[in-house]
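Before the break, one more example. Copy the sequence into your notebook; we will annotate it together after we see the structure.
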Amino acid sequence: MGTEIRRENQCEGEKKKEIMRMELESLSENEEFARVAVAMFMSRMDPTMEEIDDVKTAVSEAVTNGVIHGYQGKAGIIYIEVAIEGRELTVTVRDRGVGIQDVKKAMEPMYTTDVTGERSGMGFSFMEAFMDQVEVLSTPGEGTWVTMKKQIGR
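Here is what the structure looks like once it is written out:
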């Protein structure tokens, strides 16, 4: 487990790209740490409180999906990468869990595989509502990648 932060210089007009990577155990209590760490990292972009709250909510949903659905309560690692490039924030949350059989169906509001009745099936809907772009890639038996983008300080 660990955290890495680095800065890259790119040739395109000396645009800087900053990246933070974290690996967290798939424990529900790590969801709060993930959202706070991402919020602290993005604070260098001088976001509004609303932008911070939007990103924190989306990160919470993505991490929770990995813990609950990806690993189904079993041990695993949640991988988080946050990139800042200009005004664009990109957050990728991935797991190496069970994967999603039908991503299109899973992204429908109110759809859930939870049989306990504790989950609302709104995780992807919240991510889409609070971020500008959400892409979900998944392979059954291999895991899921959720990449979310948001322009900060329009």
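The mean pLDDT is 85. The CA atoms of residues 13 and 141 lie 42 Å apart. Try to locate both features in your own notes.
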